[in-house]
TrEMBL record, chain A:
WD repeats: from-to residues: 166-206, 255-289
Keyword annotations: Acetylation, Repeat, WD repeat
SUPFAM superfamilies, sorted: WD40 repeat-like (SSF50978)
Pfam family, one: WD40
Keyword Repeat among record annotations: yes
Organism of derivation: Heracleum sosnowskyi
PANTHER family named in the record: WD REPEAT CONTAINING PROTEIN (PTHR19919)
Gene3D superfamilies: YVTN repeat-like/Quinoprotein amine dehydrogenase
Protein's recorded name: Transparent testa glabra 1
From TrEMBL, chain B:
Organism of this sequence: Heracleum sosnowskyi
Family matches, as PANTHER family: TRANSCRIPTION FACTOR MYB8-RELATED-RELATED, TRANSCRIPTION FACTOR MYB90
Protein name per its UniProtKB record: Transcription factor MYB6
Residues covered by the Myb-like domain: 11-63, 64-114
Taxonomic placement: Eukaryota, Viridiplantae, Streptophyta, Embryophyta, Tracheophyta
Gene Ontology molecular-function annotations: DNA binding
GO CC, any one term: nucleus
Length: 336, 293
């Protein structure tokens, strides 16, 4: 830890800020005792960076370990730590990243080493960019990736082989989320949310389609506490659409209090009724879903305003009273 | 329809075959004036003795001013081949990535120029898949290059405005229908009077698309077992850890938020709204705001 640098400022009981040298986009919080946060740069060039900072909840500080920073080809479209680090059989954090390929990294005490590069392209030099991925919590050997080539690929990351690749949509797939061991859902530029069951690959089930045909859906968050619910966001829309898979095609709620496009959503890790959203209006809003929506819509229960557009948001599973947001070159941890 | 059309007289007989330059001009003029779309009106508006489909295709594939003409460039062919490897014969998707090229042109080019080559020359040989200069461990990487079958599941859509019907299974204490009932009732367009979903499935063995076996639908059940659709697990969700400080007490919410009024009992609705929670969260967040400012 001697080469750690003290990077945080603006400390208070409820807010910790980290200043990065780069614009930030991808972000993940580890569930391991290391309390690490991985941050991916968003630079419009080939070489990008991933930094790993550790969060000390006692002193409310964020420290970057320069030994744990590494180059990443293209900006990572998503970063995610192993969802079940205790069950991973490794003492070190495992980090996955998507971009040109899916990659796994082992975050050791003083260095990061690549474990594998997963490329599903049969032919040599071409691989359609990956837009996102999700690591299956129940079955951690499974990672599902989504791609602009309209497919989703399910990897067995332990064996390093493709379990299956599905043409999931008619247009680019923007995001993917696991529901349970063999069930995932994806959203696409074709405007649909589709559920897939790996035990029945004959069919997918469309459970939502954006109201204006072909309005792309960008992100999907499946409520891990109550799998009936998922949330999605539309391109250039201030709405968070809440879906109940029991009443397909009709959203159960639309949260419309952002004053700009919504960019990121995250369900509370321990509550089935709370969701946080962040958007171009610089606001992070926490919503409590009521049982019945009033005529005037649903208001957020709390609000935080950042100094610029919020691009990313992660609700810490290990420390559920902290939410991390990323805007411009800052990452902030907010205590809820 | 054609036999009828030809019977009623020559004037109604639509012209077929190659388009003349005069016809092209008429179609162009029409679309300049009215814009693209509403193809059923186009033959009349343009004064063309052609069917609407013919007009549409003529416009989209030949007359549209954005269409790029001429030989395919090296880069275009390269991209076409890469995309074809990924997407197969999905010409409109491929054309969507080649600015100005139509699906039709791409398909024609492929069939006349590329396909032949591919059958004679093994395409690109087998190059090393991963350059991987950043990788120490290459055995994992190379194992990924093995071929696999790409599956295309058929999407099925459930009818719009589906409200969840309330089926009761006499053998259980379910209050609300399990999702597989809903889905299967919708999919097989089953008579609403049929209350047993088991019967529903058994009755339709010859549906056009094969119904998944029992395995295939299990996940819906699995999904729902956890949160006590049978009413056993109320309030037993784990992880109420932060509840005391943050108003999350109401996790027990068994039938949950936003239940569709028409379909599910809203009896517990009022209980679920937590009074204290909101102010607590807001206070904390107000604090945050002042801290930040």
């Amino acid at each position: 830890m001697e080469n750690s640098t003290q990077d945080s400022h603006l400390r208070s009981e409820t807010l910790v800020t980290y200043d990065s040298p780069h614009t930030l986009y991808a972000m993940s919080i580890s569930s391991s005792p290391h309390n690490r946060i991985a941050l991916g740069s968003f630079l419009e060039e080939f070489t990008n960076r991933v930094d790993v900072v550790s969060f000390d909840e006692q002193t409310l500080t964020l420290k970057r370990n320069p030994n744990l920073s590494f180059d990443h080809p293209y900006p990572p479209t998503k970063l995610m730590f192993h969802p079940n680090p205790l069950g991973s059989g490794k003492s070190n954090d495992i980090l996955a990243s998507s971009g040109d390929y899916l990659r796994l990294w082992e975050v050791k005490e003083n260095c990061v080493e690549p474990i594998s590069l997963l490329n599903n392209s049969k032919s040599s030099e071409f691989c359609a960019p990956l837009t996102s991925f999700d690591w299956n919590e129940v079955e951690p050997r499974r990672i599902g990736t989504s791609s602009v080539d309209t497919t989703c690929t399910i990897w067995d990351v332990e064996r390093g082989v493709v379990e299956t690749q599905l043409i999931a949509h008619d247009k680019e797939v923007h995001d993917i989320a696991w529901g349970e061991a063999g069930v995932f859902a994806s959203v696409s530029a074709d405007g649909s949310v589709r559920i897939f069951d790996l035990r029945d690959k004959e069919h997918s089930t469309i459970i939502y389609e954006s109201p204006h045909p072909d309005t792309p859906l960008l992100r999907l968050a499946w409520n891990k506490q109550d799998l009936r619910y998922m949330a999605t966001i539309l391109m250039d829309s201030n709405k968070v659409v809440i879906l109940d898979i029991r009443s397909p095609t009709m959203p159960v709620a639309e949260l419309e209090r952002h004053r700009g496009s919504v960019n990121a959503i995250g369900w509370a890790p321990l509550s089935c009724r709370h969701i946080c959203s962040g958007g171009d209006d610089g606001q992070a809003l926490i919503w409590e879903l009521p049982t019945v929506a009033g005529p005037s819509g649903i208001d957020p229960m709390s609000m935080f305003t950042a100094s610029s557009e919020i691009n990313q948001l992660q609700w810490s599973a290990a420390k559920p009273d902290w939410i991390a947001i990323a805007f411009a070159n800052k990452m902030q941890l907010l205590k809820v | 329809m054609h036999p009828k059309a030809s019977k009623t007289g020559n004037s109604l007989k639509l012209r077929r075959g190659a388009w003349g330059s005069d016809e092209d001009a008429l179609l162009r003029k029409c679309i300049e004036k009215y814009g693209e779309g509403k193809w059923h009106l186009v033959p009349h508006r343009a004064g063309l003795n052609r069917c609407r489909k013919s007009c549409r295709l003529r416009w989209l594939n030949y007359l549209r001013p954005t269409i790029k003409r001429g030989e395919f460039g090296e880069d275009e062919v390269d991209l076409m081949m890469r995309l074809h490897k990924l997407l197969g014969n999905r010409w409109s998707l491929i054309a969507g990535r080649l600015p100005g090229r139509t699906a039709n042109d791409v398909k024609n080019y492929w069939n006349t120029n590329v396909q032949k080559k591919l059958t004679t020359i093994s395409y690109h040989g087998q190059k090393e898949v991963v350059q991987g200069e950043e990788l120490n461990n290459r055995k994992q990487a190379s194992s990924c290059a093995t071929t696999h079958v790409v599956v295309k599941p058929l999407p099925r859509t459930l009818s719009k405005g589906t409200s969840v019907p309330c089926y009761f299974n006499p053998n259980s204490h379910m209050h609300s229908p399990s999702p597989q009932e809903i889905i299967y009732n919708k999919i097989v367009k089953n008579d609403n009077n049929n209350n047993s979903y088991n019967m529903t499935i058994n009755k339709t063995p010859s549906a056009a698309t094969p119904l998944p076996d029992q395995d295939g639908i299990d996940w819906w059940k699995n999904l729902f077992e956890e949160f006590g659709i049978h009413g056993q697990e109320e309030g037993s969700l784990e992880g109420v850890l932060t509840a005391s400080s943050s108003g999350l007490e109401n996790l027990g919410a068994q039938r949950g938020l936003m239940t569709d009024e028409s379909s599910a009992p809203a009896t517990e609705a009022a209980d679920l709204i937590e009074e204290g929670g909101q102010s607590c969260w807001s206070d904390i967040w107000d604090l945050l705001n002042s801290d930040y400012n």
